[in-house]
Design goal:
152 residues, elongated, 78% helix, mainly alpha
Length: 152
C-alpha cells in the first residue's frame, strides 16, 4: 500500500469525529480571532510574549490554524493537518506556559494550560489512530481501494 494511501486509511471508530470536531473547531476559532482581534489575540499578543516578527508570524499562525482546523473538521488530509498544528501548540506551550512554571506559578500554569494540553493530546490522538470512519480521508481511501487504485 503506497504511503499516501496509508495516510488516509483509518479503522478508528466513528466517534473519532468528535475529537476531530473538538480540536478542529478550537483551532479554527483561535485562528479566526487572530485576524478579528489583532491587538489582543494576534500581532499584539505575539509582540507581548516575544514571538519574533509578530506582524508576519501572527497572520501566518492564524492562517495555519484556520486551514488545518478546517481540514480536521472535514477529515481531509487529517494526518498531515495535525503536524503544523502540533508545531503551533508546542510553541504556544513553550512561549506562554513554561515561563509561568519557571516563575513559580505552578497552579496558575496548570489552570492556563488545560486547553493547550487538551489540544495537544487531541492532535496526537488523531495522528495515531487516524481520522476515523466519518471522514473524507476514509471515504477516499475506501473508494481508491474499491477501484483497485485506478481512477474511473
Amino acid at each position: 500500500m503506497p504511503f499516501y494511501q496509508r495516510m488516509l486509511v483509518s479503522t478508528a471508530p466513528k466517534a473519532t469525529f468528535l475529537i476531530r470536531l473538538l480540536v478542529g473547531l478550537a483551532f479554527l476559532s483561535e485562528g479566526s480571532q487572530k485576524f478579528l482581534f489583532p491587538a489582543s489575540l494576534g500581532v499584539g499578543r505575539f509582540l507581548k510574549i516575544g514571538i519574533p516578527a509578530p506582524q508576519v508570524m501572527a497572520p501566518f499562525v492564524g492562517a495555519i490554524e484556520i486551514l488545518c482546523g478546517l481540514l480536521l473538521v472535514l477529515g481531509l488530509l487529517s494526518g498531515l493537518a495535525t503536524i503544523p498544528l502540533l508545531a503551533v501548540i508546542s510553541v504556544a506551550i513553550v512561549s506562554t506556559k513554561l515561563p509561568m512554571l519557571f516563575a513559580g506559578k505552578l497552579w496558575g500554569m496548570a489552570h492556563e494550560a488545560r486547553a493547550d494540553y487538551s489540544m495537544l493530546m487531541g492532535l496526537l490522538f488523531v495522528l495515531v489512530v487516524g481520522p476515523g470512519l466519518l471522514s473524507i480521508d476514509h471515504y477516499c481511501a475506501k473508494n481508491f481501494a474499491d477501484t483497485g487504485g485506478e481512477r474511473s
